[in-house]
Amino acid sequence: MGMFEYNVRSNIAELQAHFAASKREMARAIKDGFRASKEPVREVLKQEARSAFKVRDPRMDRTWRVSTSRAPSLIVRNLMRGFGLHVTGGTIMPKRGRALLIPINTRGGTRIGTAKFYRMIDWLRREKLTFAKNGILYVKPLMNTSRRGGVAAGTRVNKKFRSKFQGTKKRPSGFEIKLNAEGLTPIAVIRRSVTLRKRFDMDSIARTKLIPIIIKNIANEIEVARANLARAA
């Protein structure tokens, strides 16, 4: 028997086409893997936020945005204002003035918007009803000054003041009137600055929770791509 020789050079175009198709399928599989990871990654982030914070408002779950880029990669964003400080930690200083005011005594434990809070503070200051003591901003409510109807002077909070400060069912202000022994109502804590510790460890969450999800989904998509290539061959 003579020596057998076969030159595959004539098949190089077919080989190149196969490798190009394989490369395209793998690239598509990686992109599909990232895309398939978006929803499970979002659910993990919601759970981690619930465990890191006392989430009272269900709308916080809707602040997460997970998207893919052309790289490919996965981009995670949170739309909640100031959330980045919980990720990195940091110190908050007043933009104007000498101190920060932190609302307290909010109605039913709910939050109050910044604009609404400072409108209330401006009104109280114009009425000269604020009083600072030991790092707390108090309000001295206007009391009744009439004995009409048998009500002794100064025994009850003035109805007009109560309606403006406490609000009505249609227009709640967010604060309760809670008189202490001195007839004062606390409304805010006064601080020169506030330092927030790092409460949401994004690096650790990505390393231990998010990346395994992405790797699993990419591996699944690659298996599908390989099966498609095998059938095509």
Describe this structure in words.
42% of the residues lie in helices and 16% in strands. It has 6 helices and 8 strands, in the order ααββαββαββαββα. Helix 1 runs antiparallel to helix 6 and helix 2 runs antiparallel to helix 6. The longest helix is centred in the C-terminal third of the chain and has 31 residues.
Give the helices and strands, then pairings:
Elements: H1 12-36, H2 38-52, E1 64-69, E2 73-78, H3 83-88, E3 90-92, E4 100-103, H4 114-126, E5 130-133, E6 136-139, H5 159-165, E7 185-191, E8 194-196, H6 202-232
Antiparallel strand pairs: 1-2, 3-8, 4-7, 5-6, 6-7
Helix pairs in contact: 1-6, 2-6
Number of helices: 6
Structural class: alpha+beta
Report how far the terminal alpha carbons are from each other: 33 Å
Give the total of beta strands. Answer: 8
- On the 0 to 100 scale, the average pLDDT is 85
Percent in strands: 15-25%
Shape: rod-shaped
Widest beta sheet: strand line-up: 4-7-6-5
Low-confidence stretches: none
Main beta-sheet annotation: 4 strands, antiparallel
Element order: H for helix, E for strand: HHEEHEEHEEHEEH
The Rg value, from CA coordinates, equals 32 Å
How many distinct domains? 2
**Fraction of residues in H or I helices:** 40-55%
